[in-house]
């Protein structure tokens, strides 16, 4: 961000005044401690006269240090280092004696040996003050990095020029939707844009377009598709895999490693950054060798884990540590003040922001940002070909403060400063760089599901299954309606004198709920309910394979209608043995995705174009849970209801969460043809890969990408269940269906040929 000149000059003057004041106080303190150093005449002076003497002496010493010291050092550079080191103290002491002698009243005096001590202490104090005041000054930080880059090139014998093709920096602004970005680039009420650097690019060198995510609008699915070219079988941020009995979580290191291996196997290459690439702050490596804060390798131990070394490399520099520590504490205080203000103003919707959250926010918005930005600048100064970095600050704050809150806008402004800093450093790089900005998803605002209806999705599911729920949830209108629906489906009359919370007592499953399918089981396990933003996932762990609609109705007759008819639920996805993928809505609405049949109004209509194809694709993933629930969506206000404690959410369909952006230099070819929409993270991968090829040839080794598929011989693949083909005749192609059942992927069948290529070591030489 380019600051106005008056702000730059004013900040410099304030720093000079602060350093002068500290030097003056240091001189006064030393005058009181050292017997051979005085600031008053023999007849005695008032406190004011002594203070004036100290201020004039400190000022003169500072001016001499700024003007004379650089010339002296340059003149003495040819002297041996030891001699020069000793002369530093003598020269400093000499300058202090000169500074005291220019006092017209002759009040200051010091012995030569004492002057050396005083000068050394004053230099240390002023240097520490100056460093403290500039640790958060991006201009000073940028100039320091530029000096280091010049020294590095001189040491390597480089002249600063290069015939290499341009490199590419991909900066992912996590969670920033296209609409939010556009608002941040516009002037508001005669005020400059929130992101002036990016606004300047858009008016000159860059272009921007929205793109549409898959149903799972979250970082795990989007970044996996962008970096590795495949996000198949990733239905949500977290889901339950029946085959292993484990919950997969995208930001868990072990899960991220598995997802990366699967994606590389399907795409038959290591990723976007395979050749001379760097991955910074991401969930996945993208095939890069240079890693910092990459989650998929964070669980590794030993010398091969270079991801966590990003922290050590950054904080090994004391200037970095000081800069980040000051900013971290400032961010903690800022969050406490902002959350307190929100409480006092009784802003709604609002979620709890106490406990450890201020520190979590400070880590995401300061520590991780500083480490990632510094790593990117190091990559640029090293001339690396492809760099992909994720800046998560906005996403973290928007979850708890709202996508368009004042807090979130402030984070966008600081991200703009980081972008400007990276762009300035690129000017000193050994090669030209093109900077591409993009996001992995947006965020949709709205009150949480629990806040709006008084119960969690898990409570609603348990009520629909006839299982006990909490008393608090049972007393809410939604809980009471769910109980009544369940009783009606099970033909259980209301008990006389019931207090309205009868189903919340005990832990037994009502006998009527257990169907013939499970009558032989000693116990029916409770459903596993997971949330991914406004997307809910329900699995029955005791039933192998994907449970069909017919079996769900047989075991829990009230469950599907309880979910579909709830006002906070937009639609429910299940698999029918007779009709394939089916979407259920309120009032008996039904959309059979594989045949195109619609009964009533399709529940997907309100979610806009592309919703049907996105849901159909996910419906045939191998890891799709038994039931998927998407919250309701209000198109007039753009709001959804997160099943987590978030007032800005993403993960499902509805609103701006599914519309991130892609901003690229105009010199590159457009992402898609005019009038065409960019859809899906896998398509974005193809676009980014094409841009790398335009600059420097294929960035994924051709032999590896074209290698013949080899069936996976892992225990996981061997344990995969056989494909379940739906009963009944094959459905015909829907009006806007992307494919028929013949090439769909049913439960148990791989979503795509789960293959791996024979390992080819890429040639990373230029």
TrEMBL record:
Residues 481-503 have a biased composition (Basic and acidic residues). It comes from the Bacteria. Keywords: Membrane, Transmembrane, Transmembrane helix. The keyword Transmembrane helix applies. InterPro entries: Alkaline_phosphatase_core_sf, Phage_holin_4_2, Phosphodiest/P_Trfase. Residues 472-503, 695-751 are annotated as: Disordered. This is Phage holin family protein. The chain crosses the membrane at residues 12-34, 46-69, 76-102. Residues 706-727 have a biased composition (Low complexity).
